[in-house]
Amino acid sequence: MATELKIGIVSDISCPWCIIGFKALQTALKEKGPGITANIEWQPFELNPQMPIEGQNITEHITQKYHISEQQADQNREAIKQRGLSIGYEFGNRGGGRIYNTFDAHRLLHWAKTQSKQTDLKLSLFDLYFKDSGNPSAHDQLLKTVNSVDLDVIEAKQILDSDQFTADVRQLQQYYQNAGVQSVPAVIVNDKHLISGGQPADVFQQALIKIAQEG
């Protein structure tokens, strides 16, 4: 008997562990038990909701936010790079060495869900930031990303030029914050099972099989 799992992934596009975790989840889903399917939805989370429009140097930001040295920040970045390579994702100079506000990207992702293109857009936004050193707060770059996944650029521009979906995204952010999500990625299966962090594929696979067997 087929079992469909509802998987909500709370994440931000400037979070390297979010793409690492998703790649591992993808592998787990390919190797899952027979009859298990998944319906994936992305939910909004901002790592830096107060980030100004010009962004901030990423090393400066990381050392200030986590109270670590530049050397430690470099070591962490190298560890993330190697973990990415191990699951088939090559990180570039993310954001050109800067970190940006991502709220407008989340508004577009909310819209993309209604167009059945949410995962396509999410992955392209990860690539914009991590591979292409792009700025996910710049509307022209967001529109190019929208176009790359065959979404309507004119409609996307209308969204960006207005406050459309602002209330929806804020409400979802508050919902997950109230539910206790303080870090990402947070993978929530069937609205009740939480898998935190960029776990290896085998951890995801074991969890998914167990949850499916519970019915």
Into how many domains do the coordinates divide? 1
CATH superfamily: Glutaredoxin
Major beta sheet summary:
4 strands, mixed
End-to-end gap: 11 Å
CATH topology: Glutaredoxin
- Which stretches are low in confidence, meaning pLDDT under 50 for 5 or more residues running? none
Structural class: alpha+beta
Q: What Rg do the Cα atoms give?
A: 17 Å
Can you tell me the CATH architecture?
Answer: 3-Layer(aba) Sandwich
- Tell how many strands the DSSP assignment holds: 6
Q: Average pLDDT value?
A: 94
The number of helical elements comes to 9
Indicate the proportion of strand residues.
5-15%
Shape: globular
Main β-sheet, spatial strand arrangement? 2-1-5-6
Report on the structure:
With 215 residues, the chain is α+β, with helices and mostly antiparallel strands. The chain has one domain: Glutaredoxin (3-Layer(aba) Sandwich). The chain has nine helices and six strands, in the order βαββααβαααααββα. It has helices at 16-30, 58-66, 70-86, 103-114, 118-130, 139-148, 153-160, 166-178, 201-214; strands at 3-11, 36-44, 56-57, 98-99, 186-189, 193-196. A four-stranded mixed sheet has the order 2-1-5-6. A two-stranded antiparallel sheet has the order 3-4. The longest helix has 17 residues, at 70-86.
Protein traits:
single chain, 215 residues, alpha+beta, Glutaredoxin, two-stranded antiparallel ribbon, 6 strands, 52% helix
Helix-strand layout with pairing:
Blueprint: E1 3-11, H1 16-30, E2 36-44, E3 56-57, H2 58-66, H3 70-86, E4 98-99, H4 103-114, H5 118-130, H6 139-148, H7 153-160, H8 166-178, E5 186-189, E6 193-196, H9 201-214
Parallel strand pairs: 1-2
Antiparallel strand pairs: 1-5, 3-4, 5-6
Helix pairs in contact: 1-9, 2-3, 4-5, 5-6, 6-7
